[in-house]
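Hi C.,

You asked whether I'd gotten around to modeling the 76-residue construct. I have! Everything is below, sequence then structure, no commentary in between.
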Amino acid sequence: MKADQKLNLEGLLCPIPIVKVSQAIKSLPVGGVLKATATDPGVLADIPAWAKSTGNEVLAMEREGKVITFFIKKLK
């Protein structure tokens, strides 16, 4: 999946990944896609909940070993 911006959150623990995703998505245009990779398993619940509460969309989530990758589309 193509991303307009990539964000490496590996090694960071909650709430830092959510804070950085929130900051990064602000710099994208509406319709832009952010690829975020993290290793904190807390993001499995936190990023979808954050996306839903902020009106953004998780397009895909992939997990390979300890690395969790999200593709998040900015909707507004």
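If it helps when you're writing up: Residues 43-54 form the longest helix (12 residues).

Thanks,
B.
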